[in-house]
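Try this one yourself first.
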């Protein structure tokens, strides 16, 4: 077993593995990863870009979940340094591809690796396929974030947002400029590519800004023609898996809200269901999705969603109820004042927020 690496920034390295007895599969996988990691400096950033699933894939790391046997798995996470044990142990039929990206702007060689095992024999046999337009866009966005990363700001932003996912440390103004430039230079050809790119960027994010960029891409003006009620499941996934106000509020107000106004018959019943859902973030979305609707506000729906959620003690939900009522008070103060007066069980927080502008 071995790997050869040239010094150029585009050098490739392959690992060929001979016959392996079934009991040694896990060790072979770890050794392969060890060759890859130790072939580069400790500052090399290594990303698993894809895994082909055959009879089974069972990585140890909890975030590595095989989705369906027999299909190409989307990219896994990134690893820094020489920690091959983090890659998990793959069984039966497997295929790996690794590639190295620049870490903090430093150029590093690229590795393309694919190995497969059938009945104990592993051979190098595939190549990384050419990237599609969505993959190219994602690659450029990640590289752009890496170039303007700020470790000090990253720590502050992560602390403020109480985020388990790390930050690159790129504030919104810089991120928005980066998004505009890269979105403009990498147009997506059709709706399917656009939605697939959003989901891939969202699901495989290693830094919170990558998810912000997925949200930004979902609202990019040239693609507004593709907005429809059919996108609600996409936004629902982002709302439920994002599960924090920085994601949810943007999606609720600027994605779900416009769909509600344009396709009321399709979206209103869903908001009625979400208001009764057990997930707090679906409930918050149902309540606040009309923020900014002004005269187009469906007061029957607003009242219904608040009455369905007002007994929930969640802070963000109660705050959202007050916010939705306060925003509508800018358009119709009497309605809000009457609603609050006729619902004495509204929480003090919701009541205070709702009446802030009309008392």
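Now uncover the answer:
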């Amino acid at each position: 077993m071995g790997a050869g690496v040239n010094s150029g920034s585009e050098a490739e390295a392959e690992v060929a593995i001979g016959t392996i007895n079934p009991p040694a599969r896990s060790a072979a996988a770890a050794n392969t990863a060890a060759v890859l990691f130790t072939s580069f400096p400790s500052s090399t950033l290594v990303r698993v870009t894809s895994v082909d699933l055959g009879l089974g894939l069972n990585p140890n790391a909890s975030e590595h979940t095989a989705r369906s046997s027999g299909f190409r798995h989307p990219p896994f996470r990134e690893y820094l340094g020489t920690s091959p044990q983090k890659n998990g142990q793959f069984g039966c039929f497997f295929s790996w591809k690794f590639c190295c990206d620049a870490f903090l702007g430093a150029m590093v060689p690229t590795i393309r690796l694919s190995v497969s095992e059938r009945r104990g024999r592993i051979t190098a046999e595939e190549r990384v396929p050419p990237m599609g337009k969505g993959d190219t866009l994602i690659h450029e966005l990640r590289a752009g974030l890496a170039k303007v990363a700020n470790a000090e700001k990253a720590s502050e932003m992560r602390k403020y947002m109480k985020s388990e996912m790390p930050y690159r440390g790129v504030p919104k103004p810089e991120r928005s400029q980066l998004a505009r430039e890269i979105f403009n230079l990498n147009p997506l050809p059709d709706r399917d590519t656009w939605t697939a790119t959003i989901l891939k960027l969202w699901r495989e994010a290693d830094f919170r800004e990558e998810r912000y960029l997925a949200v930004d891409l979902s609202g990019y003006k040239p693609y507004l023609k593709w907005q429809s009620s059919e996108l609600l499941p996409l936004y629902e996934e982002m709302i439920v898996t994002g599960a924090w106000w920085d994601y949810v509020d943007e999606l609720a107000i600027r994605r779900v809200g416009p769909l509600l106004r344009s396709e009321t018959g399709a979206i209103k019943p869903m908001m009625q269901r979400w208001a009764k859902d057990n997930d707090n973030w679906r409930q918050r979305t149902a309540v606040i999705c009309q923020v900014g609707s002004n005269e187009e506000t469906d007061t029957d729906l607003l009242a219904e969603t608040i009455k369905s959620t007002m007994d929930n003690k969640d802070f963000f939900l109660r705050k959202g109820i007050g916010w939705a009522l306060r925003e509508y008070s800018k358009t119709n103060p009497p309605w809000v004042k009457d609603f609050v007066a006729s619902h004495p069980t509204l929480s003090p927080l919701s009541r205070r927020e709702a009446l802030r502008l009309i008392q």
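Discussion: The radius of gyration is 24 Å. The chain has three domains: 22-124, 131-226, 252-359.
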